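Researcher: Here's a chain I'd like modeled. Treat it as a single chain, no partners, no ligands.
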Amino acid sequence: MLEVRIVAKKHATDTSYGQEVSGVSRETLTVTGWDANFFEMKTNSPLDLIYRREFLKRSILGGASFATAWPVLGGEGGSKTGSSRPLRFGIITDVHKDVMHDADDRLRVFIERMEAEKVDFIVQLGDFCVPKEGNLGFMKIWNAFNGPRYHVLGNHDTDDNGQGPTTRERTMEYWNMPARFYSFERGGNQFVELDGNDQPADHKSGYPRFVADDQLKWLRKDLATTKKSTVIFVHQSPERPDDGGLQNGAAVRGVLEEANRDAGFRKVVACFTGHHHRDYVRQINNIVYPQINSASYYWVGGNFLRVRYSKEVDAKYPYIKYTVPYRNSIFALATIDTGRGFLKIEGRRSEFVGPAPWEMGETKDYWDAKTLTAGVADWKMPL
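Model: Modeled as a single isolated chain. Structure tokens:
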């Protein structure tokens, strides 16, 4: 008989809340030995909880062998080969070297952990560091990883480097990026890095958050020319265009969904993003959109100023007091297992330095506390 259990699992430093699954509020489903941690953003969209409901439905239908109607990564046409070894990669984002006094230590912890885990590659999803001599030590830590390293451009990576605002080209050269947007193959899968910092024609002020037509054209062609299952990396999320994500996020999602329709299988399976300093995962039209939390902090702004470290640190790094820092570095280890048919995230958890945002004013609903956590939640989904 198929056993379905809801297991309570809470972390003292995890401020997330369980979502409702068949009337039971908790995160972990155990289905014939299959554990899955799910963490979703609360929205007004009917997409809420599709993830968990689909997992439960397909798990029950699949039985003990966990047969799933969703194609898995790695095989052409979405077929499951079962022969590939799991592909594992480390993800870190929004370290903000030019804001945080201990950014070097946060990055070093990530690199050492990924070396110990012997991952296949690492990727940072933007807001890493600006190109200047003072950041060479930070880059040396990153480059010490003994394996492939990939970059995504963030909006703050072209901030003032002490000599005025820099350019994407200068940052790319400093990081040794091959291009603003590019793709690579690893472990029988295709990975695509996008640049969400193009400037739209109607741009007025602030940081642009847009994927221009030439990049969309390239993306459409790149997806069409591969038969491999594909994962996207981009700084700003395409699933929240009205909340700091890609202004034309719907158009980007449309290209990904078009690729899946044309392929006749679930070619594009996931789109990982940073930028929002939140912790959740959503699914839209059978594509997963995991939001990876910042390695360093959540920005609360000038109405909630609080000096969190020493006066000396505040004097040298004045922007920290606009944030609620995380005590330890936060990052994620991703696993794609084509043989057993799952995508998994193992996240690192920490705690806030000083009071949480909702302890400084406003309510938990105001802050959307379900997604504002000092960590990255664990989750696992069938593919």
